[in-house]
Amino acid sequence: MGTLRGEEIIAQSFKREGVDTIFFMMGGPTSGTAGACLELGMQGIYVRHEQAAAMMAHAYARVTGKPGICIAPMGPGVANLVTGLGNAWADAAPVIAIGGAAPMRGTTLDTFQEMDQIPMMRPIVKAAYRIDLGYRIPEYISIAFREALDGKRGPVYLDLPGDVLAGKVEEERIHWVASPSRTEARPAGDPALIRGAIELLAKARKPLVLTGSGVLWSRAEDQLKKFIDATGLPFFTTPQGRGVIPEDHPRSFPGARSTAFREADVVLVIGARANSMLSFLRPPRFSPDAKLINVNLDGKEIGHNRAADIGIIGDARLVLEQLTLEAAGKFDPKHETEWVAQLAVKHRSNLERSAPLLHSDAVPIHPLRLCNEVKEVISRDTILVVDGHEILNFARQSIPIYQARCSLNAGPHGCMGVGIPFGIGAQAARPDLPVLVLSGDGAFGWNGMEMDTAIRHRLPIVVVVSNNGGFTSRKTGGNVGRDLGFQRYDKMVEALGGYGEFVERPDAIRPAIESAIKSRKTALVNVCTDPDAQATTDMGFAGY
User: Fold this and answer.
1) Does the chain have fewer CB atoms within 10 Å around its N or its C terminus?
2) Contact 408, 62 (CB under 8 A)
3) Sign (positive/negative) of CA torsion 388, 394, 395, 401?
4) What is the rounded distance in angstroms from the CA atom of residue 205 to the CA atom of residue 200?
5) What backbone torsions phi and psi does residue 211 show, to the nearest 5 degrees?
6) HSE toward the beta carbon, residue 415, CA cutoff 13 A
7) Alpha-carbon gap, residue 125 to 212, rounded angstroms
8) C-alpha pair distances (Å), 21 with each of 14, 60, 505
9) Element holding 214 (H helix, E strand)
């Protein structure tokens, strides 16, 4: 038999795991690894900065449900992965990162770019391993996939010294891992607790269902809709969990979110963490007297920050099926309760209150008018990526999401700069769907040069920049370090070979976005918006 280099073993291991796309930065000693993946037919997206590669892998994972793969060269290249992997860790998204490392033969010699990279990664990944034997590479790849996908998902880092990557291994010594190497088993909930949950919900005057990313990772959107349709309960999602049920569903009341959380007497939380995105499920955001039913695959999340009256460890899909069966005959889903009617009225009143700004002809343009034009242009299956501060919150309040895995944002880490990389990762994952990135001008600056990456790879993402000339509203965080000027980002994209539009008046927004979409190029629509328009949110500078 022949020999294989370590980098070729990685590529073949990825192929066996079903990897079809990698995001990478060229450089030593990992360029050969990326090249070996490309030789096996994988799509390769090469970037301008390593953090963007990690963010693209994160978005790929969000859209497909499979681990995203990123590869970075040693030393500074690996250090540049930290922001992206830290964000994936906070978002519990499965990413597998390959980092090059200085050769083992040079350990402690201060060889070029020698760093102790494992300790740097451990706090922001589920697991980190240094591979020092080439013939064991398939085992480590298999472990990485199992770790990334087991229970609460997350990133895994593999450290590959240059001499392991370049070293030749006799094929008979390689420990290839038999497929499948992991189980797809799903744990169901305790039947007694399922009965108790339904009894509590059936007796409640003001029940609500609150879901998170766990429903998406379990691909339980159909089961959730069946449960809601069978019970008639109002439902809400975390910002990351949007789209599991179309937000024009008759039991969806996003405009009444604060009222619903504050007044609910029984809250069924499925696949969501009690973190800052949900104000820790604590008062005053939620009633101190509310009963909490908490369903999560990760037992550590049940009781975290707030005690659960009923805690169910189980997979979201199976538990929802159990809840639906148990609910049969105990609810009248067609009956509009006083609680549902109250939420509907509050939802409509908030929509009516924002209507003048959604249709405002003011110049400079109000961000809500921009959001409304985006809403009117995009299709129901458009993957919408939102990045920034003011525009993130304005968009959350005004642009509905209709399909699962069609909404991406910074997540619980609030990481600015994800917009362009997320758009690229989503488009690489789903070339059949339109992708639109709505970004603040401050957020665009972090990874704006990745527009070049999209152009080189002919990925027709459309980026709409809400350009208010700074990092926030002038009323949000003060003016210290805020001002950026109304820069011509559209000209930058045109210079790179993309399509650009510049907009200063509200009636020009829609034609500009439509032209960008029709161009079939990587495009940027630069919209000048009101620097004094301030969004309201439960998070922000005041929460620090």
Assistant:
1) C
2) yes
3) positive
4) 10
5) -120, 160
6) 28
7) 21
8) 10, 9, 40
9) helix 213-217
Q: Are 437 and 387 in contact (CB under 8 A)?
A: yes
Q: How far is CA 468 from CA 53, 209, 525, in A?
A: 28, 37, 14
Residue that the structure tokens 């039913």 belong to: 293
Q: What is the pLDDT of residue 537?
A: 64
Helix (H) / strand (E) element for 196: namely: helix 191-203
Q: What are 250-255's contacts with CB under 8 Å, separation 24+?
A: 251/340, 253/343, 253/344, 253/346, 253/347, 254/347, 254/397, 254/400, 255/346, 255/347, 255/348, 255/349, 255/350, 255/351
Bridge partners for 210 per DSSP: 236, 269
> If you search the block for the tokens 């069966």, which residue do you land on?
325
d(CA 63, CA 385): 11
288: left (phi over 0), alpha (psi -120 to 50) or beta: alpha
Low-confidence spans in the chain with pLDDT less than 70: 477, 537-544
Tokens 């972090």 appear where?
446
List the helix and strand counts (H, then E) for the chain: 21, 19
Q: Measuring CA to CA, how many Å separate 211 from each of 178, 257, 274?
A: 36, 13, 11
Please report where in the chains the tokens 């499965």 appear, as a residue.
94
DSSP per-residue codes, 453-522: HHHHTT---EEEEEE-SBSS-TTTS-STTTB-----HHHHHHHHT-EEEEE-SGGGHHHHHHHHHHHTS-
Quick one: 39 exposed, middle or buried, by C-beta within 10 A (0-12, 13-18, 19+)?
exposed
> Both tokens of residue 87?
């964000």
Q: What pLDDT, on a 0 to 100 scale, did the predictor assign at position 213?
A: 96
CA triplet 392, 397, 398: central angle to 5 degrees?
Answer: 100
Q: What is the rounded CA–CA span in Å between residue 81 and residue 54?
A: 6
- Helix residue ranges, H only, 359-478: 367-377, 390-398, 419-429, 441-447, 450-456
Per-residue tokens: 529: 């918006």
Residue 542 confidence (pLDDT): 34
Q: How crowded is the C-beta side of 275, counted as CA atoms within 13 Å?
A: 18
Main-chain dihedrals φ then ψ at residue 88, nearest 5 degrees: -65, -35
Two tokens at 149?
A: 């996908």
Cα–Cα distance, 313 to 301 (Å, whole number): 9
> What is the C-alpha to C-alpha distance for residues 51 and 99, in angstroms, rounded to an integer?
12
Contact partners, residue 119, CB within 8 Å, separation at least 6: none
CA distances from 431 to 63, 152, 420, 493, 515 (A): 11, 28, 16, 21, 19
Q: Per DSSP, what are the bridge partners of residue 291?
A: 266
* Beta sheet of 156-161, edge-to-edge order: 43-46, 21-24, 68-72, 95-101, 156-161, 127-130
The conformation of residue 238, written as its DSSP 8-state character, comes to: -
Closest CA to 351 of 247, 253, 238, 438: 253
How many other C-beta atoms can be found within 10 angstroms of the C-beta atom of residue 223?
22
